[in-house]
Design a protein that fits this description.
The chain has 21 helices and 16 strands. By secondary structure, it is of the alpha/beta class. Helix 2 crosses helix 4. It is globular. It holds the Pfam family LRR_6.
Length: about 600
C-alpha cells in the first residue's frame, strides 16, 4: 500500500507523521495552540496506474490484500482521494498557550474532488486490465457515462448517511462512498462493453434503459428503503424497468410491508414497461402495499408475480389495483395459491389485455371453474404466442373449454398443458382443434394427463400437420406400445423435430423401436426420452442400433436409469408379437392429414 508523508510546521504536533491511503485514513488529529487551516484544493492525486498493475500494492500494513475484487477497488478509489500534500498555512504561536485538538472533516467533498473522481473512474473503467481481458474493454464514452452515474448514486447515498452520522466528521460517509463506488465499478467491468445492437437500443430510451439504472435498482435494494427513497424519487421519471424480485427476504412482516410502501411511494407515477415483484410472499397485504405504484401504471408491457403467495384475495386486489393492461404483452403468475376465485379475478385482467402474447398461470391450484374462466377470458387474447397452464386441476370440462379458445389463437407457437387432468376426452378435444389451427406450433407439452391409446389417433393427426414442431412431450401417460407406435408413425414427417419425450408410458420393445425409427433420420434431433418404461435389454440394444444406422448417433438417446428392463418378461414378448400384428392393421386405416 502506498504511503504519503509531510513535514509539519514548527510547533505543530500531528498524531501520525505518515498515514496510509486506505478507507481508515479519514481523519487526522492535530495539537496546536492556534488555528489549523487546510486548503481542500491542495488535495492532489496522480493518475492511477493501469489495473493490471494492482499486484504492486501489498498488504503489509494490515489492509486486506487487493487480490480480492472488493479490496482492490477500495484501494483504487482511495488513491483517487489521496492526500498527497497538505499545503497548510500554519502560524507558530506562543508555546505557553494551552494545546487544542482539531479534527478535519472529510465530507462532503468539493465539486472539483467529485469531478476528479469521475475522471479517474473513467480512466480505470476504460484502461486495459484483468477485467477487460475477460469481459471486454469499455470505450471512453461508455466508461464516462457509467462513471458519472455511479458517482451520483454513491454520493447521494453517502450524503444521506452523513446527515445521520453520530460523530459528524464524515469518516463513515467517505467509507460508504468508497465502498459502494467500488461495488458498482466492479459490476460495470464484469458486465463488459455493450454490444453494438444493445448500444443502438439504449440510444432509444423508450426501448431499453441504460445500464446505470439497472445497477442503481440493484444497489438501492441492498442499501435499504430510507436511503433509496430520495434517490428513487429523483430519477423515477427515467425508469422504465423495475425489478424488485426477492427484495424483502428475511424481513419481519411489518418491516417488509413498510419497505414495500416506501418503494411504492417513491416509484409512484413512473412510466414502467417492465415490473417484476416475484419471490416476495406478497399476499393481499403486500399487493395493497404496492397500491400507489400499481395504480399509476398505464404502460406496462411485462408484469411478473411468480411465487408471491397470491391467494384469492390477493388476486382480487391485483385486478382492482391495476387499472390498465391494454399494452400488456407478458403476464406471469407461476406458483401461487390463486384457486378458482383467484383465477376468475385474473380472468378480468386477461379480458383487459388484448395485446397479451405470453401468459403463464402454472402451479396455481386452479380447478375446473377457474380453468373455464381463464379459457373464456383468453379468447380476447388473439395475439397469444405462448400459453403455460401446467400443474393445475382443470379436468375434462375445462380442457374442452380450452379447446374452443385454442381455435381462435392462430398465432400460438408454444402450448404447455401438462398435469391438468385432461384425460382422453379433454386431450382429444384439444388435439382435434389444433389439427385445424396453430400452423406455426413449435412446442406441445401435454404430459401427465392420464392419456391412453384411445387418444393416440387424434394426437397423431394433430402432430402430423405441424411442420414446425420442435418439441413434443407426452410423458407420464398410459399410451403403451399401441399409442407409441401410432404417435411414432405420425412423427416421421416432422423434419424439424428436436425433442421427443415419451417417458413413463408403459412402453415396451415394439413401441420403443418405432419411436427410434421415427427420429433416427432427423438432422436437427437432439433428445429421445423413453426412460421409465418397460423396455427389455434386447429392446434397448435394438433402439441403439436403429439410432446408429440413422443420421443421428446414439447420443440422442436420453438416460435410462428408471427403465424397468425386467418389466416385459416372456409373457410380455408373446403379447408384443400379437400387438404388433394388430397395430399394423390399425395403422393401415389411420388417416393422417398433412399440410
Amino acid at each position: 500500500m502506498r504511503k504519503s508523508t509531510f513535514v509539519p510546521a514548527p510547533g505543530v504536533k500531528i498524531s501520525r507523521t505518515s498515514f496510509l491511503i486506505n478507507p481508515t485514513a479519514h481523519s487526522l488529529s492535530f495539537s496546536h495552540p492556534l488555528n489549523v487551516s487546510l486548503n481542500p484544493n491542495s488535495f492532489r492525486s496522480p493518475p492511477p496506474p493501469p489495473l493490471e498493475h494492482h499486484d504492486e500494492y501489498d498488504d503489509d500494513d494490515g489492509v486486506e490484500s487487493p487480490s480480492s475484487s472488493h479490496s482492490y477497488w477500495w484501494s483504487s478509489w482511495s488513491r483517487y482521494c489521496e492526500l498527497r500534500t497538505l499545503d497548510s498555512n500554519m502560524e507558530t504561536a506562543s508555546q505557553d498557550a494551552p494545546p487544542r485538538t482539531f479534527s478535519i472533516k472529510l465530507w462532503p467533498p468539493s465539486e472539483s474532488t467529485r469531478l476528479m473522481l469521475v475522471e479517474k473512474m473513467t480512466i480505470n473503467l476504460s484502461t486495459e486490465s484483468i477485467f477487460s481481458k475477460k469481459y471486454g474493454l469499455l470505450s471512453k464514452e461508455e466508461a464516462s457515462e457509467n462513471a458519472k452515474r455511479i458517482e451520483e448514486v454513491c454520493f447521494a447515498s453517502a450524503n444521506e448517511h452523513f446527515m445521520k452520522e453520530p460523530d459528524g466528521d464524515g469518516s463513515s460517509a467517505v467509507q460508504l462512498y468508497a465502498k459502494e463506488t467500488s461495488k458498482l465499478m466492479l459490476e460495470v467491468l464484469k458486465r463488459g462493453p455493450r454490444l453494438k445492437e444493445e448500444a443502438v437500443a439504449e440510444a432509444d430510451f423508450a426501448e431499453k434503459p441504460p445500464l446505470w439504472l439497472k445497477l442503481l435498482l440493484t444497489y438501492l435494494v441492498v442499501v435499504g428503503p430510507r436511503v433509496a427513497e430520495p434517490i428513487l424519487a429523483s430519477i423515477k421519471n427515467q425508469l422504465i424497468e423495475v425489478d424488485l424480485s426477492d427484495f424483502i427476504a428475511g424481513r419481519p412482516e411489518d418491516e417488509a410491508l413498510d419497505v414495500m410502501r416506501i418503494f411504492s411511494s417513491a416509484l409512484e407515477g413512473c412510466k414502467l414497461k417492465y415490473l417484476n415483484l416475484s419471490d416476495n410472499a406478497l399476499g393481499e397485504k403486500g399487493v395493497r402495499a404496492f397500491e400507489g405504484l400499481l395504480r399509476s401504471q398505464d404502460s406496462l408491457e411485462e408484469l411478473y408475480l411468480m411465487n408471491d403467495g397470491i391467494s384469492e384475495e390477493a388476486a382480487k386486489a391485483l385486478a382492482e389495483l391495476i387499472p390498465s393492461t391494454e399494452k400488456l404483452k407478458i403476464l406471469h403468475f407461476h406458483n401461487n395459491m390463486t384457486g378458482d376465485e383467484g383465477a376468475v379475478a385474473i380472468s378480468e385482467v386477461l379480458m383487459r389485455s388484448p395485446l397479451l402474447e405470453n401468459f403463464r398461470c402454472s402451479s396455481t391450484r386452479v380447478g375446473s371453474d377457474g380453468g373455464i374462466a381463464l379459457a373464456e377470458a383468453l379468447e380476447t387474447c388473439t395475439n397469444l404466442k405462448k400459453l403455460d397452464l401446467r400443474d393445475n386441476i382443470f379436468g375434462v370440462e375445462a380442457g374442452i373449454a380450452l379447446s374452443k379458445t385454442l381455435e381462435k389463437l392462430s398465432g400460438i407457437t408454444e402450448i404447455y398443458l401438462s398435469y391438468l387432468n385432461l384425460e382422453d376426452d379433454g386431450t382429444i378435444a384439444i388435439a382435434n382443434v389444433l389439427k385445424q389451427s396453430a400452423p406455426a406450433l413449435e412446442v406441445l407439452e401435454i404430459g401427465g394427463n392420464d392419456i391412453t391409446a384411445e387418444a393416440a389417433p387424434a394426437l397423431a393427426e394433430c402432430v402430423a400437420t405441424k411442420s414446425f414442431l420442435k418439441k413434443l412431450s407426452l410423458c407420464e401417460n398410459e399410451l403403451k406400445d399401441s399409442g407409441a407406435i401410432i404417435i411414432g408413425k405420425a412423427l416421421e414427417s416432422n423434419a424439424q423435430l428436436k425433442e421427443l419425450d415419451m417417458s413413463a408410458n408403459m412402453i415396451r420393445r415394439a413401441g420403443a423401436r418405432c419411436l427410434a425409427q421415427a427420429v433416427a433420420n432427423k438432422p436437427a434431433f437432439v433428445l429421445l426420452n423413453i426412460d421409465g418404461n418397460a423396455i427389455s435389454d434386447e429392446g434397448i440394444d435394438e433402439v441403439k442400433e436403429i439410432l446408429k444406422a440413422g443420421k443421428n448417433s446414439v447420443d440422442v438417446l436420453g438416460p435410462l436409469d428408471e427403465n424397468d428392463a425386467e418389466g416385459e418378461g416372456e409373457e410380455g414378448e408373446e403379447e408384443e408379437e400379437g400387438d404388433e400384428s394388430e397395430l399394423e392393421s390399425k395403422l393401415e386405416h389411420l388417416k393422417v392429414e398433412e399440410d
